[in-house]
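User: Hey, quick favor. My workstation is busy. Could you predict this chain's structure for me?
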Amino acid sequence: MRSTFLTFAAAALAAGVAHAEPATYAVDPTHTFATFEIGHFGASVNRGRFDKKEGSVQLDKAAKTGRVELTLYMNSISTGTPPFEKHLQSPEIFDVAQFPTARFVGGKFSFDGDKVTAVSGNLTIKGKTQPVTFKANQFACYDSPMLKREVCGGDFETTIDRTAFGVDYGVQYGFPKSVRIVAQIEAIKQ
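Assistant: No problem, here it is.
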């Protein structure tokens, strides 16, 4: 009887260890957006988003660990104003010809229960990499009735000092250094 219990306990433990494997998720570009906001002389806020992006997420909910990689294609910037988009892509600001992508790689996940509350990692813009933490304003996983797969995602935000990435344009005119970045991300379990 004792050996049967030990065998059952070992099997349950092994199943728990197997269950703790990280799952891989592919970023869903139709439900993922990265936007930025920067003040304009204290009178209004300029906003834009990056329409082309790709990435992946590894998430181990049991171990409370993960890794996210998100690449933004800088030539896909969209503000609704083509001359502004062209200026943002110019050497004065993002220098898209030399630095065609921005990238976030996060390897430190913070949790409250089973909810992701923050992801910390490194953000690279214009070839310069700085540590950042994206705070989760909401996070959930659900079984998609259309895809018949699990989807996890949330709304994450951070504020950066753009001059740390070499994006200095307009500081001398009074444009703020701080830029708010909001990343709405959903990823599909593979």
